[in-house]
Amino acid sequence: MADLQESLYEELENYSYVLEYYSPESELEEEVPPGATHWISLLLCGLAFILGVPGNAIVIWLTGFKWKKTVNTLWFLNLAIADFVFVLFLPLYISYVAMHFHWPFGLWLCKANSFIGQLNMFSSVFFLTIISLDRYIHLIHPVLSNRHRTLKNTLVVVIVVWLSASLIGGPALYFRDTLELNNHTLCYYNFHEHDPDLILMRHHVLTWVRFIIGYLLPLLTMSICYLCLIFKVKKRSILISNRHFWTILAVVIAFLICWTPYHLFSIWELTIHHNSSSHQVLQAAVPLSTGLAFLNSCLNPILYVLISKKFQARFRSSVTEKLKCTLLEVSCSGTVSEQLRNSETKNMSLVETAQ
């Protein structure tokens, strides 16, 4: 029995606590009831889904179908698409956590769900970084911006971002796997079944790539852009829309607040192979950081509405126009029906008179 427990534990040594805070030790010994962090995580994920689906759908509808295509609308359209696709998959993760980490949805949905999460993380931070660079170049180097800031070039950048995010998130499709254990089906990272050194090497590489490319470099780029922008705007007295500036800055800050704990705990997670004392802390902290990271997918549309006066005006204009068209159709339909009824009444009167 001890050999079996040791074998099962070795199989799950490569389990990623950042995405699923499942404890192999507790599963082998006894069932541990979910703690408060478990339910708070579910609440955050549920909130992200409830607010994220309609919020991002509205942004996609407005920027993709109602408003004129500009460079700015293309940036925010693709940012909303990344968040919208992610929140559509959230019910799978919520069910997984609610069933105490039992994955009944099969191998391919296990891979797809993890891949969509990685795709959302990288595409969101890439688009936010590009938006920051675009704002800086547009305001500080207007000649260069006017020469190259076209819809055609923007579409090329958008395609490159999606391809890059897919490539970096691709390992989730390859390494993600399912495992049957004690009447539970786990969805986990299967870096290797029998080679501990290979497990650690792959785990470290993917974690540091995710941290450096998906967080650190974008953070430095956005920080430098906004610091330089603020300094040069004051120095040159450049006119800038305060609302637009604060909208973009608020979106970036929301991303940092939501994703910073996730990346910090993902790095701390690497020590669990050498220091088991971190195990309980990670079990308590990772659910909250994961739920907080997922919550970011519903915050961007809220920030647009709360901060951007232009967005509010356009939203009201689009909704008013839609309601006007709907009421006009109903009114026209009612008028036609009334005309038909009057015509029928008149015809009946003529027939009666003829008789």
From TrEMBL:
Residues of the G-protein coupled receptors family 1 profile domain: 55-304
Assigned keywords, A-Z: Cell membrane, Disulfide bond, G-protein coupled receptor, Glycoprotein, Membrane, Receptor, Transducer, Transmembrane, Transmembrane helix
Annotated GO CC locations: plasma membrane
Family stated for the protein in its record: Belongs to the G-protein coupled receptor 1 family. Belongs to the chemokine-like receptor (CMKLR) family.
Pfam families xref list: 7tm_1 (PF00001)
Protein name in the entry: Chemerin-like receptor 2
PROSITE patterns: G_PROTEIN_RECEP_F1_1, G_PROTEIN_RECEP_F1_2
Location of this chain's protein in the cell: Cell membrane
